[in-house]
Amino acid sequence: MNEEHMVSGIGVGPLVGKSDHSPIIFNFHCVTGKVSTTEYTVYDKGHYDQLRSELSVDWEVILANCTAKETWKAIRSRIEAKRGEAVLTRILKPQQNKPIWMDGKTMDKVKKKRQAWRKFKRYRDANSYAEYATCS
Fold first, then answer.
1. pLDDT band for position 69 (50/70/90)?
2. Nearest 5°: phi and psi at 24?
């Protein structure tokens, strides 16, 4: 994406050491997407004995004179309320182990460069180093 006003405050910094190279200084303005989270229920960590004891009530008294729809609503609301207390829920956030600018092509190049570096470290020969140096 290339838009006007994404870069501002462009300038040239002081020379770096005794080199004739100068750094370019700028402000980059970008908007990132909202990170979505997912809530999930951890059923294997539930306190089912507690849930069973809290749901063992006299259902006939509670559900007396109820229609089928009302009966289902009463049972469902009670189970869901008790389930919320007895069964844990966790929030899953997507892991962002890479910078926002790291796309698929860039990641492939980084992997290739790392593999070439590992090969050079292992064999320590000129061919391995030349392979590493030419990766870009």
1. very high
2. -95, 130
Spell 78-89 as b/e; 16+ CB within 10 A means b: eeeebbeebbee
Please give the structure tokens belonging to residue 119: 């090969």
- The answer to the question of residue 43 being in a domain is yes
DSSP state of 36: P
Q: How confident is the model at residue 130 (pLDDT cuts 50, 70, 90)?
A: very high
Count of structural domains within the chain: 2
DSSP string, 99-112: -TT--HHHHHHHHH
How far is Cα 82 from Cα 75, in angstroms, rounded to an integer?
Answer: 11
> Considering the entire predicted model, what is its pTM?
0.40
